[in-house]
Design a protein that fits this description.
Length: 390
């Protein structure tokens, strides 16, 4: 079933020529090659058994995997996911609270240097209303995501957290609001935050410098991830696939970093250009490359919660559904106020829906069930934390 699912999509994607100019050499050569590289298959099997491989072997997989071997990888990743989480897909309500940002990430459409976009920031009441609406629809995890907005200081965020947790105590709040001090992370945790998403974007110091301005430091990003762990959050990190200057070595560094850090959540999506950024002319990341990295991440960090990202659904229709068959097990529909959804454009051609939230929910549930998933709106903690008082 899984094999044929991917076969059909492989052909569709190949016809569209949807491959990024990348380090995945056999994908890049557009080889439909059904001639298998048995070494790739055997290394992938070994990875599943051992949990990690030497750097050279990970490099070999990335450089030599083709559509043909990727099917075995996707199948194994799906098995690993099933072993810990079964066929559940966890639904989280995403609320984009602000598109102000003090940072200048070269790849991001809402970075501080983009003067062409309309900025917005939700009020405490607007955030609460969005959370309440999501709660009424059944969601029990709320992801408050925004730029690194200096206006949203610890007191303001804490006040929102307390209000949500007072009204809805048996829920989880995930924050994705950028780099902060240990003291800030502690304070927000105390106020009610449970999880924090902060992608490392690349585990290569040099590559990080190519993607960010001088005032953004790789060391600080990594330090923040360790702060979050010390503050007892469920920590999420991750990276873009196909970002400018990415190499096989940076991708292997990402995998090694994930293995060592063992995050509770991993967000992996394709790089997608934004027309108002320094990387506006760079080609976008590819579907298969991203799926392969999701699957490798699933095998290397078996118990992680891994979202099928909006970016994946934005490069190819059905991209998220494929990710859910390649190791991902979380979806985060946008439940923020409809007027603002259009304004949180971190990359071009971000998908949105014209359906109302209830219609979207019903369609999504039907689709997931048809594809063999069980829809789960519960808090959906990392498996090692289930039942633990946070
Ligand atoms: S990626 Fe995040 S921190 Fe960087 S500019 Fe965009 S919103 Fe700001």
């Amino acid at each position: 079933m899984l094999q044929s699912y991917f076969y059909v999509y492989s052909i569709m994607i190949l016809e569209k020529g949807d491959f990024m100019n990348s380090v995945f050499l056999r994908l890049n050569n557009n080889e439909v090659n059904f001639v298998k590289d048995e070494k790739v298959n055997s290394l992938v099997n070994e990875l599943k058994l051992k949990g990690i491989l030497p750097i050279e072997d990970l490099k070999y997989i990335i450089e030599n995997i083709s559509i043909s071997e990727s099917r075995n990888l996707f199948k194994l990743a799906d098995m690993v996911k099933n072993q810990y989480y079964g066929n559940k897909v966890y639904l989280r309500a995403l609320i984009e609270v602000s598109n102000y940002c003090k940072q200048g990430c070269f790849y991001c459409g809402i970075n501080r240097d983009n003067k062409s976009i309309k900025r917005y920031r939700l009020t405490e009441d607007e955030v609460f209303e969005a959370v309440k609406k999501a709660y009424d629809l059944g969601y029990r995890t709320f992801v408050l995501q925004g730029g690194d907005d200096p206006f949203l200081n610890d007191d303001i965020i804490s006040s929102i957290l307390v209000k949500i947790k007072t009204a809805f105590p048996q829920t989880r709040i995930t924050l994705s609001l950028g780099e902060k001090t240990q003291a800030s992370y502690d304070k927000l945790k105390l106020a009610g935050a449970d999880r924090y998403l902060l992608r490392h974007e690349t585990a290569s110091f040099k590559h990080y410098m190519y993607l960010h301005p001088q005032d953004m430091l790789y060391d600080n990003r990594i330090k923040c991830l360790h702060y979050l762990r010390s503050s007892k959050y469920q920590v999420g990190t991750g990276m873009m696939i196909g970002s400018p200057y990415q190499t096989v070595d940076t991708l292997v560094s990402d995998l090694m970093f994930l293995y060592k850090f063992q995050p509770e959540m991993i967000g992996i999506g394709p790089f997608i250009h934004h027309h108002d950024t320094k990387f506006k002319d760079h080609s976008d990341g590819g579907l298969y490359e991203t799926l392969i990295m999701i699957s490798l991440a699933r095998i290397i960090v078996p118990k992680a919660l891994i979202p099928a990202t909006t970016a994946l659904g934005s490069i190819v229709e059905g991209g998220r559904e494929l990710a859910l068959k390649a190791g991902a097990n979380v979806l985060m529909p946008n439940l923020g106020p409809e007027e603002q959804r259009e304004l949180y454009k971190i990359y071009d051609n971000k998908i949105t829906t014209s359906d109302s939230d209830i219609v979207f929910k019903n369609k999504l549930e039907k689709k997931l069930i048809n594809e063999g998933h069980a829809v789960d709106y519960s808090v959906g903690d990392h498996i090692d934390l289930e039942g633990v008082k946070l």
